[in-house]
Amino acid sequence: MGFLTFIARNILGRPARTALTVAGLGVGIAAVMMLTGISRGFERAMSAIYEARGIDLIVVRAGISDQLSSNLDEKLGATIREVPGVAAVAPSLMDAVSFEEANLASVLANGWEPGSLLMKGLRILDGRPLREGDGRDVLLGRVLALNLGKKVGDAAAIAGEDFRVVGVYESDSLFENGGLVVPLRELQRMMGREGMVTGLVVAASPGADPKALGEAIEARVGGVAAVPARDYVRSNVQLRLARAMAGATTAVALALGSIGLLNTMAMAVFERTGEIGLLRALGWKRRRIITLLMGEAAAIGVLGAAAGWLLAVAGMRALMLSPTARGFIDPSLAPAAFALGLGMGALLAILGGLYPAFRASRLEPTEALRHD
Amino acid sequence: MTDHAESNVPLLRAEGLVKTYPDGDVRAVRGASVAVAAGEFVAVTGPSGCGKSTLLHLLGGLDRPDAGEVSFRGEPLSRMDLDAFRARRLGFVFQSFHLIPTLTAVENVQVPMFESDLPRPRRAGRARELLEVVGLSHRAGHLPRRLSVGERQRVAIARALANEPALLLADEPTGNLDSSTQAEVLDLLARLRAERGLTLLVVTHGDEVARAADRVVRMKDGRIVEA
Questions:
Q1: What SS3 state is found at B96?
Q2: Strands of B26-36's sheet, edge to edge?
């Protein structure tokens, strides 16, 4: 019998307690993996909006926390186009609409000019792109078309108005796949924001430094913030909230997991005081006792991480069944999320196992043997 | 140390042992001295609470005396690594067997071997040999809960022999057994002593054990009153 067999026997010989501890750890680890995965998925989806189109700067109202609350005169686009280093500018109006019949809330609605820089990132899967002169015509993202059960030629009611589906597109951004695009003029009219946009996207000329270009735009146009796309994504309020939630959940899961494992290992040591006394009586050195108990804690940590992986994958798939999450959440978990789960399992094992293992090693054999 | 000198030195000697427990200020052992020769079978008897088990723990290096000294083959335990001493020189048998419930009989026998030089691949084979010695080779794969109390005690005896000790210390080894199983265990201990030259020191309440011993050490109120 090897040492690992001994550890395995101790864990598998007490299946109920092991299963409960592993389940407890697994839930905490899964929660952290899911939240981290969701926040990273948001970041990937937002970055994809800009990267696929070669957009270097986002221009919004200075001091706003969210592009949806930004309000700019679309004529600023012409002023910005004159700034040296600007290759292209495209206005964008963003809003959120709901499709109650499909139980979909907060679907991203983009108002773009046909043929603009923003349209470049869309791959038309069916139908055609928007054209000059289009009115109540809409492009549906692939996921939204699936969720609504609509295809090219169908009618779609958007914010109480009838539109005709002229195309279905796919984008590198999950947000856009769950959203729709209508002509800018139509969205401005529908939302009562004629002549206004929520932001302007800017492509820099080759060799231009986006940061310096942003400063030049801000100097030329007062009251706006011209933010490099990467910084804009990172400072996005929803992303920051998601990251903060993931961070807080990690801290809570670590605390609860450590306490849970500490409790389990302390109980294991208490229940097995006689057994540990026996091992000491048979000449086992203190460090071997610590190794045994830490080995058991590590094995429970690894099993907890594996349970966390399974729960996280299942949880992400379950989230996709929710109409509000569908189309906005990337169900795939990056390898980093799995590494995070394993790391948490290992850390919890160390935190939870160390004190009980050390305490057990200090037991005097005679005192421990009297316990039984 | 020469062979001649070694032959004159008792296997185990205790001089003026005192042990006081802090809880209640109980003096469990009060100046006990005893010597056990190699190959001898010594029974320690006396009423409950007279200090028999405490004496056994001190002799076996499970506890340290407040005063006095225990020597093994002339070497004081106070200068030894007690973990190594217990692992390699002694075998322990307890009244309540203390088998590990999650390990099979053959795995329980291997537990002391972790602190021996026996290579891992040979441990299982040696454990099976020992189970055969105690007549339990057919129960090697059973967990303790599937064994009778007599079988459990025989597994515990096999475990005590794992590292080929010179001295076997037993604390009420027949205390939880019925009379026929007691006789089986006593026969087994006698056979092991004869075949392996084991030295036995057994703490007991039982007259049967005392009758089987070469010598009886009687204790009363923490003192040895008859050696």
A1: coil
A2: B26-36, B12-21, B67-72, B75-76
Interface contact flag, B114 A281, Cβ < 8 Å: no
Within-domain flag for A208: yes
Q: Is the pLDDT of residue B104 over 80?
A: yes
CA distance A183 to A129: 11
Q: Under CATH, what is the fold of the domain B3-226?
A: Rossmann fold (3.40.50)
Range of the domain at A75: 63-222
Cβ contacts of B125 on chain A, cutoff 8 Å: none
Q: Does residue A36 share a domain with residue A68?
A: no
Put simply, whether B92 touches A (Cβ < 8 Å) is yes
Whether A20 and A73 map to the same domain: the answer is no
Summarize pLDDT for A16-34 with one digit per residue, the tens.
888 988 888 888 888 888 8
**Would you say A250 and A339 are in contact if contact means Cβ atoms under 8 Å apart?**
no
| Residue in A1, A283, A288 nearest the CB of B110 | A1
Cα radius of gyration rounded to whole Å, chain B: 17
Q: Which of A89, A108, A109, A69 is nearest to A226 (CA)?
A: A89
Among A1, A12, A372, beta carbon nearest to B96? A372
* Residue A212 and residue A71 share a domain: yes
Is A297 among the domain residues?
A: yes
For residue range A305-345, what is the model confidence (pLDDT) as tens digits? 999 999 999 988 888 776 556 556 676 777 888 888 888 88
Q: Is residue A181 part of a domain?
A: yes
Is the residue at A24 inside a domain? Answer: yes
Q: How far apart are CA A62 and CA A95, in angstroms?
A: 19
B190 touching A (Cβ < 8 Å) = no
